Amino acid sequence: MKKSILGALLVLMFVAVGIAAAPPLTFTFSDVHANKTAMETDTFAVNNAGMIAGDYVDAKGVQHAMILAGKKLTSVDHKNCVTTGGFAAGAIAFYGINNMGAAAGWCTSTKTGLFTGFVYAGGKFTAVNFPKSLQTQAIGINDKGDVVGLYLDSASVQHGYVKRGAKYTSIDVSGGTSSEAWGINNSGQITVFAIGSTGGYQSFLYNGKTFKPISDPNAGTTGTIARIVNGKGDVAGAYFDSNSFEVGFLRHGGKYYDVKDPKANNVTKPDGLNDSLEIVGRYTSTSGATLGFKATTK
């Protein structure tokens, strides 16, 4: 009996030592360019095959949605979408991509001047618009075709939402304003963030019933923005430090790791994450340019 107990204690001791000795995650960064002539490339999502979704601005200043598989670029346009002014102004872009290559995105309509959401799959667009909303953005998509994003109601109040099949469900953070749902995995976990009562961002992992807080311990009063959750429950996003600079993070195994592109000037924004812990996003260079990046872990 004593030998059995001693053996068990030794096993536990070696396991504990192994855990304690486990090295922290390190990241290797590389810039992402849609092609050699692109003036800007924005990377918002990556699936398990490594396909990257986002947008790019060509040499003529026209923005296109894109899917980048290695060096193969699929450039996508819609006749009813504006093509200039950048993604912030509503030019067409993809923000999510699932493992079948279906992409979720949104743009400003040339007909209405309002945001309109869509899913792009098999070369075709399918509209995503929350019922009776003024505007809708489609941002995240999982392998079931469930879509998340944000919409503005008839009073121009912002809410998050999830679309499962033909059913839309509104998502609001209690006590918060301007709720937004960004990512959804195959288990139905959704990343949601909102502006809290003190004016800072609050983030959560929402399973349809409860909101589990996601808060980087290094965040200042401006808070944390959780953007994406992968199939294993890892979460990536950004927090604002004490200087209000935006610093990327990855929450893996219950621990938070900083994700900071070495070329960045204070701003790194992880937007996409796959099950291999490949991260894509954007950073601001020392010259003030916005550049897309991919980070791999080891």
Structure in a nutshell:
With 298 residues, the protein is mostly beta strands.
CATH homologous superfamily identity: Fucose-specific lectin
Question: What's the CATH architecture name?
Answer: 6 Propeller
Order of helices and strands: HEEEEEEEEEEEEEEEEEEEEEEEE
Number of continuous helical runs: 1
* Residues in helix, %: under 10%
Spatial separation of the terminal alpha carbons = 42 Å
- Low-confidence region ranges: 5-21
The number of distinct β-strands equals: 24
By helix and strand content, what is the structural category?
mainly beta
Mean of residue pLDDT values: 92
Biggest sheet overview: 4 strands, antiparallel
Strand content: over 45%
Radius of gyration: 20 Å
Helices and strands in order, then pairings?
Layout lengths: L1 H20 L5 E6 L7 E7 L5 E6 L5 E7 L2 E5 L16 E5 L5 E6 L6 E7 L2 E5 L6 E7 L5 E6 L5 E7 L2 E5 L5 E8 L5 E6 L5 E6 L4 E4 L9 E6 L5 E6 L5 E7 L2 E5 L4 E10 L5 E7 L4 E8 L1
Antiparallel strand pairs: 1-24, 2-3, 3-4, 4-5, 6-7, 7-8, 8-9, 10-11, 11-12, 12-13, 14-15, 15-16, 16-17, 18-19, 19-20, 20-21, 22-23, 23-24
Explain this structure to me?
By secondary structure, the protein is mostly beta strands. It has a single domain (27-297), classed as 6 Propeller (Neuraminidase). The chain is 7% helix and 51% strand. It has one helix and 24 strands. It has one helix at 2-21, and strands at 27-32, 40-46, 52-57, 63-69, 72-76, 93-97, 103-108, 115-121, 124-128, 135-141, 147-152, 158-164, 167-171, 177-184, 190-195, 201-206, 211-214, 224-229, 235-240, 246-252, 255-259, 264-273, 279-285, 290-297. It has a four-stranded antiparallel sheet, with no helix packed on it. Strands 2-3-4-5 form a four-stranded antiparallel sheet, with no helix packed on it. Strands 6-7-8-9 form a four-stranded antiparallel sheet, with no helix packed on it. A hairpin with a 5-residue loop joins strand 18 and strand 19. It starts with a helix and ends with a strand.
